[in-house]
Design a protein that fits this description.
Blueprint: E1 29-32, E2 41-42, E3 76-77, E4 96-99, E5 102-104, H1 106-116, H2 136-151, H3 155-167, H4 177-189, E6 201-202, H5 241-246, H6 251-257, H7 261-268, E7 272-276, E8 288-299, E9 304-309, E10 316-317, H8 328-339, H9 348-383, H10 387-401, H11 403-411
Parallel strand pairs: 3-5
Antiparallel strand pairs: 1-2, 1-6, 4-5, 7-8, 8-9, 9-10
């Protein structure tokens, strides 16, 4: 009788960190996910973080959590961190299986299809620059070739899987319960793996000079727009200045919007305005407060418009709305109100829809306001003899006055930063801009 050999579990070696940011596919100074078998790296700004993220002792990236419910992910997109899903959410997904529990989300599927078929245009007829290394498409193509080699995939395998997904919408994944348990154990144990020091690892390939690379001719389309890789509709949106600014209305803009009564209510309800606090209220430390517009009333007595706003019993006239920018302290106060439950949380979908609806009006208003402000600053610099300052202001005014620049700003659709949550396994994912919970 042969003697049974006891099987021992050999610890899995940590994955060597990748060379390219998993979001933008470019090089540079990045932080590495501390999950033992991940190896994904990110620029802090690509995941709406600042450089302080590199000082966090343990950080696990979003690839390991369901994009919908934040539970432990079991299915992953090979091209981005926004296709990870759990058992409960996989049925509602558009994730195409490629290999076991790994596949491609709808966004990455389109890009991979273009790459593997060597197409020069996307499904909407937009010309793509797949060999221009200043574009996201080209960087994704280079990253995808690395992934194929790592996963031992061929182009024909991938095309067959993508073609099959169009015919059969029930994408079945092979699931291994023992692998699931290992994944969970590794995720939990990563919190104690504090000896790794991959902080701000310098990538071997040099980062391109100048601005972050952007999609080329398909610029502005949701399928390639950088901001859309970072968030999903069911996330809660961060209550930060960046997001609130997208749906913030000054008094002068509200007056302009009121000239189009058929669209007025739809545009202003859900937006934020700034109102003055009661000076007799000594408990308030700020002179103004950010409030959300929740309704519009027609005031028959004065033939005017009244806004119903959050945290105010009485409706307010448009004339009581501030025509200045809100302050950091006022935004922080709004964060605290949401965190304490005095105001409902905002979803990414809610803010995105409102931001897109207001984008043209807000952008045109800001351009016009800035041009007036620049002229005032130029006059002031001229009087004070500050000639270099005057030249800089004149250059800015000239650039902003150009039709091409204004069209560029109008094409640049808003992207929403999502609230990053502390994961359920104890690993801190810090968000310095949002009200983390």
């Amino acid at each position: 009788m042969s003697k049974r050999v006891k099987k021992t579990n050999v610890p899995k070696q940590p994955q060597e960190p990748e060379d390219w940011c998993f979001e933008c596919k470019d090089g540079g100074n990045v932080v590495v996910c501390d999950h033992g078998n991940c190896g994904k790296v990110y620029h802090p700004h690509c995941i709406d973080q600042d450089e302080s993220l590199s000082e966090v002792k343990t950080w696990v990236c979003g690839w390991h959590y369901c994009i919908t419910c934040r539970d432990l992910a079991k299915y992953y997109c090979l091209g981005c961190a926004n296709g990870s899903l759990c058992d409960k959410c996989i049925d509602d997904s558009k994730l195409t299986v490629i290999k076991r529990r790994k596949g491609l989300c709808s966004v990455c599927s389109e890009l991979v299809l273009i790459i593997e078929q060597k197409l020069e245009q996307d499904s909407e007829g937009n010309k793509l620059s797949m060999n221009d290394r200043e574009t996201y498409e080209c960087l994704f193509k280079e990253y995808w070739e690395i992934v194929k080699g790592k996963e031992k995939l061929t182009g024909s395998d991938v095309l067959a899987a993508l073609d099959n997904s169009k015919k059969d919408k029930s994408f079945l994944f092979e699931s291994d319960s023992s692998e699931d348990e290992k994944e969970k154990e590794e995720l939990i144990s990563s919190d104690s793996d504090k000896g790794r020091t991959y902080k701000r690892k310098t990538i071997r390939r040099k980062k391109s000079k100048g601005k972050e690379r952007k999609p080329s001719s398909s610029r502005g389309r949701s399928v390639l727009k950088k901001g859309h890789f970072c968030v999903k509709p069911r996330y809660h949106a961060s209550v930060n200045a960046k997001n609130i600014n997208l749906i913030y209305l000054k008094e002068s803009l509200v007056q302009e919007l009121s000239k189009e009564p058929e669209s007025f209510t739809n545009k202003v309800v859900g937006a934020f305005v700034r109102v003055k606090m009661d000076p007799k209220d000594t408990k308030q430390k700020n002179s103004h407060q950010l409030v959300k517009v929740i309704g519009v009333l027609n005031d028959e007595t004065s033939n005017g418009i009244l806004f119903q706003v959050s945290n105010r019993a009485n409706a307010i006239p448009i004339s009581k709305i501030s025509n200045n920018d809100f302050t950091a302290d006022e935004c922080m106060e709004l964060q605290q109100k949401v965190k304490s439950g005095l105001l409902p949380k905002l979803t990414v979908e809610e803010v995105q829809e409102k931001a897109i609806l207001l984008h043209e009006d807000v952008t045109k208003h800001r351009i016009a306001t800035r041009l007036v402000s620049l002229q005032n600053l130029i006059d002031r610099a001229n009087i004070r003899g500050r000639y270099q300052e005057k030249i800089d202001l004149l250059n800015e005014r000239e650039e902003l006055s150009q039709k091409s620049k204004q069209e560029e700003l109008l094409r640049k659709m808003p992207s929403i930063s999502a609230e990053l949550l502390e994961d359920s396994y104890g690993s801190p994912i810090e968000d310095t801009d949002s009200d983390s919970q």
